[in-house]
Description:
28% helix; seven-stranded mixed sheet; Aminopeptidase; single chain
Amino acid sequence: MYIIREAQEKDILEIVAIEDLSFPVPWPDFLFRSNLENPGFIVYEDKKKIIGYAILGTFKSNAHLLSIAVHPTQRKHGIGSLLLQKCISIARYYGYKSMTLEVREKNLDGQRFYQANGFKEKESVEGYYLDDNAVRMQRKI
């Protein structure tokens, strides 16, 4: 049985391991620790193991998905969509009407995932990542 809950200090090592397996330029652990008080920092836990996480923040007047990842061996089972839907629920609770995010221009699977979850391409952001441009996406919530 799984639960989606707020992230805790004890989760950081597993979150960082997922991050390292998921991104070419992963976030360092201190960035995760700095978000521990953020009610939008959530984890998907199954049998006391962290399988995925998401971090929701703000950008201008929108809710903003800062990061989301699922362990590579657990992808394509709907966990990312569950995490994203929970982030949308949190954003609605705090009164936001739309959500934005950035995804690597080269990450076509990621772009398809967000499109399947109602996001539309808004603009391209050159040099957003150290090694790639970003596609900024948005959806009404």
